[in-house]
Write a structure and sequence with these properties.
Elements: H1 7-27, H2 35-48, H3 51-57, H4 60-70, H5 73-76, E1 86-99, E2 102-113, E3 116-130, E4 133-139
Antiparallel strand pairs: 1-2, 2-3, 3-4
Helix pairs in contact: 2-3
C-alpha cells in the first residue's frame, strides 16, 4: 500500500528544504578562527554524531564530498556515526605546520562501549586558512 502525499506534506517538505538552505548560507559566513577550534568542532561532530559540525568547518570541496556521502540533510539529517561504540574523547597527537596557512593535524579518538574501552582510531586532518577562517580540506 502506497500512501499519497497531501498538499500539506508537500508544502512542509518544501519549507524544510528552504530552511536548510538558509541555515547552510549562514554557516558559510562563520568559521573556526584557529586550527585548534577547527579540530575541536570536528571532534564534536563525531562525539555528538552531528554532521553539521563537519559541514561547518569543511572547505567547499570537502562539503560536496560530505553531502555525497551523507545525502541531503532533509533526508539523513546528517546524523553520522553509530550508537556504539561512542566517542569517549580525543586528542591531537601530532601537528605539522606546512606553512603559515596550512597544517596537518593527527587526532587520536578513544572509543567506549557498554562493556568498556573499544580501542582507538586515528585520522589526519589537513587544515587550510582561507581568509579569516581555518577549514578542513582533507581527511586521511
Amino acid at each position: 500500500m502506497q500512501l499519497a502525499l497531501t498538499e500539506h506534506d508537500t508544502n512542509k517538505a518544501e519549507q524544510n528544504r528552504g530552511q536548510i538552505l538558509l541555515f547552510q548560507q549562514v554557516l558559510a559566513e562563520f568559521g573556526a578562527t584557529t586550527p585548534e577550534q577547527a579540530v575541536q568542532l570536528w571532534g564534536k561532530g563525531i562525539q555528538y554524531r552531528n554532521g553539521v559540525y563537519h559541514y561547518f568547518v569543511a572547505a567547499e570541496n570537502l562539503r560536496e564530498k560530505l553531502i555525497t556521502a551523507w545525502g541531503l540533510p532533509e533526508e539523513s539529517y546528517w546524523n553520522i556515526g553509530t550508537s556504539s561504540p561512542w566517542l569517549d574523547g580525543f586528542e591531537i597527537i601530532e601537528r605539522k605546520i606546512v606553512s603559515a596557512k596550512k597544517q596537518k593535524v593527527k587526532i587520536k579518538y578513544y572509543w567506549l562501549t557498554s562493556t568498556g574501552p573499544a580501542g582507538a582510531t586515528m585520522e589526519t586532518l589537513t587544515l587550510v586558512k582561507d581568509g579569516a577562517f581555518w577549514q578542513v580540506t582533507e581527511i586521511n
